[in-house]
Amino acid sequence: MTDTVSTAGPARPVRARRRIPVRSPHQAAKANATRRMGGPLAGVPWALPALALVGVLLIYPFFRSIYGSFFEDNGFTSSFTGLDNYTRLADDPIFGRSLLNTFLWVAGTLVLPVAVGLAIAVATHRMRLGWLAQLVIVLPFAISGVATAALWRFILNTDGALNEVLRGVGLGSWAQGWLLEWPQNTLSMIVASTWQATGLNVVLFAIGLRAIPKETVEAAELDGARGWRMFRYITLPQLRAVTVVVIGMAIVNSLKAFDMVWALTQGGPSRSSETLALTMYREAFRLFHVGYGSAIALVLSVIVVASSWAYLRRQMPGAKD
Amino acid sequence: MGRHMRNLFVAGCVLLWLLPLYLLVVNSLTPADEYTGSVDWTPQGFAFFDNLESAWVDAGIGDSFGSSMLYAVVCGAVAVLVAAMAAFAVIVLPIPRPALWFWVIFSGTLFPLQIFLAPLFGMYADANLYDSRLGLMLVYAAWAVPFAFFLIRNQMTTMPPELTEAAMIDGASMRRIFWRIHVPLMRSGLGAAFIFQFTAVWNDLLFGITLSRSPEIQPVMATLNSLNQAYSSAGPPVVLAGALVVSLPTLLVFLVFRGLFLRGITASAR
Description:
The complex is a heterodimer. Chain A is an all-alpha fold. Helices cover 73% and strands 2% of the residues of chain A.
């Protein structure tokens, strides 16, 4: 809080000072040009196709979904039930498990793809052949969730590659049905998505690392900083901006986890590995609890937007000045 | 010491990342009827094309490969064009409340797909768009617009307004300015947006399984998912060969246009 108060004051004059010489000729020209461009509404027809597509196929369904979440709806008949769907959520054990799994996905994604991605980016930074290592690690990012799931089913199956490796190295007692019990099934799928998603974070962190001015590193070296201290007090603070983006994207993506879970376990066994995204799909399209599914979708949307707010703010027009 | 640890760590990670890919390739080579039920660690024969044929013909990956190629190319291109026009309207042309337009169009990418699904299904059933190519293409195009718009708009803000002014003084119409100045100058940005949306549509599963049902309409990831659910009856080598072949387009695009591909995703980090 104090942070925002203290920065809000000085930020404005700086912005204004920088903008005046840049914007004013453009603005003046624009005021003059509006007429020649075809009046103040000239842009509207150009933006209409986008508005029509997004408005009809995304924005209208969005509001219709919120409206529908107040109805008991099995796809054929529907009746208004007020907040019933939401109160039902509170004592639905499947929803509770699904919520827990979703938070496991978020926590697991922050621990694995983000932390591992940072470690790999730092380790390969300015390394000979580091680009090649980065390329290998980012390669699975081009593969879809379903294809990744097909491959990892092969690894995680009871007679799959992982159990075979464990038996081979004498850890046969660790071999188990990785996808058959909670919480192993959720955790193994998080590992599988780590394989797929880490590369993106490596690339993002690598961009951040390249942007760090050499002078700060050299100055710290002169002061005797090495290894961990260098990383903790010099590198990490200067990665702040990119870290916000990486964490924001990681949280959003993990909250939306669907493809891999659906393709690997379909949320099973007995709905134990469902995430919110999957519970919504199952309730609405398999069990025909359309209103209840819409309520779950709204809960998920609120969580997604709320937890990525810091990241979204950066994307606002003008926020990056 | 520190240096050796670092090299060891990187080498270990690279090996860990390559191992699943190695298993994918090796086991998709095993003849499906000779597959013993346990993992092959070395190539056992070369039946990749037989496995591929099973996946391509019997499991219907081939048909849906074609459908998905159509969806991804057409919807990616339409979305980029529509998004570029909207960006042009918001950045270059006079329009009331440009920030509001930005947020309305961009908002489509903020929410999880689940919030759109149930009403879309109802609308599609009413409009006879359920299980039709047109229906899937409409929703893919709409879904691809917001983020393409975000990418293109960001790049368009970096173009000097003097370009437009000079062209206007020369008497060019706005349509001409868009096609002859903005589109050619933003080639790489438009390319990045197209590649990003091509990949997104190609990899989509959720719209595919929600809004279509028949094999000749369903996109390729939905078909691969059906094949994957029939894992033991189809035989793992066939599933893996299918997974490999549906990954090829995006892998190729990634390897050929790596710079553009990553630019799409990393644009929001700068």
